[in-house]
Structures are given as structure tokens and as C-alpha cells.
Amino acid sequence: MTFPKDFLWGGAVAANQCEGAYDEDGKGLSTQDVTPHGIAGPRTAEPAPDNMKLVGIDFYHRYKEDVKLFAEMGFKVFRTSIAWSRIFPQGDEDTPNEKGLRFYDDLFDECLKYGMEPLVTISHYETPLHLSRTYNGWVNRRMIDFYEKYVRTIFDRYGKKVKYWLTFNEINSVLHEPFLSGGIYTDKEKLSKNDLYQAVHHELVASALATKIAHEMMPEAKVGCMILSMPTYPLTPSPDDVIKVMESTHMNDFFGDVHVRGRYPGYMKRYFRENNIEIQFAPGDEEILKNTVDFVSFSYYMSICDTADPAKRKEGKGNLLGGVPNPYLDASQWGWQIDPKGLRYVLNYYYDRYQKPLFIVENGLGAVDELIRNADGEMTVEDGYRIDYLKQHLLQVEEAIEDGVEVMGYTSWGCIDLVSASTAELKKRYGYIYVDRYDDGTGTLERYRKKSFYWYRDVISTNGAVLHEEE
Q: Do 366 and 334 form a contact (C-beta atoms < 8 A)?
């Protein structure tokens, strides 16, 4: 078994988790600048000094050093995002911020210098704060116009440098974290289902519109949607549990179905009827939605179970989408259940459903790493646990490819240590590269190659063949 010759090996980051420089060169505030404790924490009125994302790992100033390290590993592709508020600081201006545009010009040029394709997420969990506070984020239809101006600006600027685009990061996560994912300022406990799904509709229309514009402005470009995948297994063989899983899976499949098929599925129309949800379609929305994506990308970290029995519905620790823990699986230090075979399953599931090329754009293990000095006197991390996690998952990707699934590439999450989205911690590390910065704000920001750095370099150079070698 082998990976395709043109398989896109690489790594992924998000601007808000690595760049820092939150107020430099004309950048406006984003929703991330007022969430110092991650998803679960409260919002602050202004950026707080303990918000690790304000500095991140200083990628904004050190990107050349970091891209060179990625090139040393042999990356074919580097996934990153554009900070919307670097381009339009408030989000509703007429004129973009030239210094912000220039930064991404320089970053993409640096990638291309090493033959590394940029894979760019247009909106990755950081709505301009002004749009969130003034318009209540994607609840307001005007967001489509602001987003359109933003995408036209970056497509015009980077169209000859960037071939692969993703419209929204983990778009289905808005159902669970409306402020993080959709910039919706209303507290989620007070947010009505009608407003939430109206915001979803606006995002889906904006995504389809961006796809249409991309195909018009950049005929060679490939545009994908990006979904938070979390395969769900019935807790028991009870038909009630199977139906419960079908219904909960529909809530996530909805987003991919619209992106790929260009229309609302019947099961969501039923859900809207039964929950008294009335989605306002503006004239032309149905036609816009027909602009479907070229590929489907997704994140994969864990699987979950579900059950119709309320007494057994005990949600697992740390899962963004909730879910019941699987008694057959081990968990990471953050309570995320480890299921390599779930990745083969979800690849087959999506390909059977969509018959579109698939791209795994996030996968990895968040863990506490210990920086040590090895026998050669070099600072490193002996992260064999990360190597084992990634190896087991990549072997399942290979199995899916053997099953006939068309997989474009794999960008492991946090290829260099960054600030966690869920907890805003730096001690939760994913990278092949250790960054000397800590949750109390101390550290030199120096970069060190972990053991996994050299392992992943060999995986790429052998196009996966090394995965079959004995330790």
C-alpha cells in the first residue's frame, strides 16, 4: 500500500494561535483577543494581559525561521489562515489595510520559495470584534457583504500565489460555540435556535458565494469546505441508539451536504418544522448555494458515542461536540478519546456520501512535552507518544486510500507548538517543533526540533513507506 505520488504532506496552524502581534501594523481586534481562556472561558471587555494569543509564538516576526523548518521536514503544503482583522481592522471599512496585505504576501512568497503550496483558511475562528459587537456576527445578513469584500480583496491579491482555499474553519462548530465560530455576540444560553440557524444560513450563502467568486477570479483555484468531523457510534446495538446517532450525525452532515449538493437536505427541513425554525432566504440564495465546493476538508481528533438513554448520556471531558465516551478507547491527557480506525471510517463515510476528493487538514495529539538535552547536547523532546499516535492514524489513512478513497493530503495540526484554541494554553502542545514559551508568559521563544520532527521528515521523504518499518 502506498500514498499517491502527488500526496500533499504538510502541517497546519491558525493565525490567531501563532501570529501574535495582535495590535501591530494596523491590525484591528478580533474575537480571539477577548477570549483569554479559550472556548470555555468568559469574554473580556478589552484584550487581557494573560491572553496567550496576544503574543502567540510570535510567528508574525519569526515566520521565515519557521517556514524554513517546515521546508526542512519536506512540507509540500502549509495550511494557515488570514486574520480578517489584519486586512479589514473593523471589518466594515471600504479600504483594506495595506500592511496586513503585505504580511501575507511575504508569508506566501516564503512558502513558495521552498516549493510549498499555501492552503489558506479565509475565516478561522476570528471574526473582527467590531463586526461581532456591532452586527452580532453572522446573525446579521450584512456579514455576507463584508465577507464578500474581504474575499474579493484577498483573491485579487493572492490569486497567483494560493491555489487551495477553505472558506470557514470547522463551520459546523457554530452550533456549539457561536461566538468562537460565528462571532455571535449574544450569549449562547440566550441565543434562539432561529437566530443560530439563520446565522448558519448566512455563512453557507457566504461560503457558496466565495466559491463562485474564486472560480470566476481564479479558474485554477480549488475551494473546499472544512468540517469538524467526529464520527459517532451507537453506545449499544439498540435501534433507539442507532436512530439517535443518525439524528445527531445529521446535525453535522447538514453542513457538508449543502456545500457539496447545493441545497438543504430533507432531514433539516423536518428539523426546522418540528422546532419552529423559519430560515429567511433572500432572493437569489438558492441559486448561490448551487456553487458547490471542489473538495471536502475536515479535522479529525476523536470519535464519540451516543445513546437515546438519558441515564447513560454522560458527556466526555473536553469534547467540543459533547458525546458519550467509548468504553473501548483510551484518552489523551485532555480527555480526547484516541481512535485511529475512526479516521479510516470517516474517510470512507465522507467519500461514500460525497464522491469528492478529501483533505485531512487537522489531526494530532495535544500533550505535555518535556524539553531535555539529549546525548548529543541538543535540546529536544522525546515524543514517541506523538509519533505513535500519528503513525497509527496515517496507517489508517493508507487503509482508506486502499479502500478507494481519494485523499488529497494530510496537514497535521499545530506542526509547530501554538496556543490551544480550546484552553488557550501552551502546555497543550501538538508540534514537531518545540517553542520555548509557557503559560505564565515566560520563555525565550526559541525553536527546538522534537524527535517527531525527524520522524515526520522521513515519512514525507519516503511518501509514507517508513510507516511500515519496525521500530
A: yes
Rounded to an integer, what distance in angstroms lies between the CA atom of residue 65 and that of residue 69? 7
* Residue 471: per-residue pLDDT: 61
Contact 38, 420 (CB under 8 A): yes
Q: What percentage of the chain's residues is helix, strand, coil (to nearest 5)? A: 40, 15, 45
Kindly state whether residue 3 falls inside one of the protein's structural domains. Answer: no
Instruction: Report pLDDT for 2.
Output: 83
- Candidate list 19, 126, 170, 362, residue with the active-site label: 362
- Please report the pLDDT score of residue 321 as a whole number: 64
Number of domains in the chain: 1
Q: Within a domain: residue 387?
A: yes
CA distance 241 to 351: 24
The pLDDT of residue 334 is: 87
Catalytic residue at 148? Answer: no
Q: Which amino acid is it at 45?
A: A
**What residues make up the domain containing 174?**
8-468
- The runs of H, that is alpha helices, within 333-448 are 340-354, 384-402
Inter-residue contact 69 to 416 (CB < 8 Å):
yes
Q: What is the pLDDT of residue 322?
A: 72
> What is the number of helices (H) and of strands (E) in the chain?
14, 14
Q: Compute the distance between CA of residue 320 and CA of residue 40 in angstroms, rounded to an integer.
A: 10
Burial state string for 134-151 with b = 16 or more CB within 10 A and e = fewer than 16? ebbbbbbbebbebbebbb
The set of cell numbers assigned to 246 is: 443518525
The strand pairing partners of 34, in sequence order, are none
What the block records as the C-alpha cell of 285 is 440564495
> Which residues of the chain have a pLDDT value below 70?
316-321, 471
The predicted structure's pLDDT at residue 320: 60
The CA-atom distances, in angstroms, between 151 and each of 159, 290, 292 are 11, 18, 17
Could you tell me if residue 2 is inside a domain? no
Residue 207, domain CATH: 3.20.20.80
Asked whether residue 66 is assigned to any structural domain, the reply reads yes
Residue type, 246: M
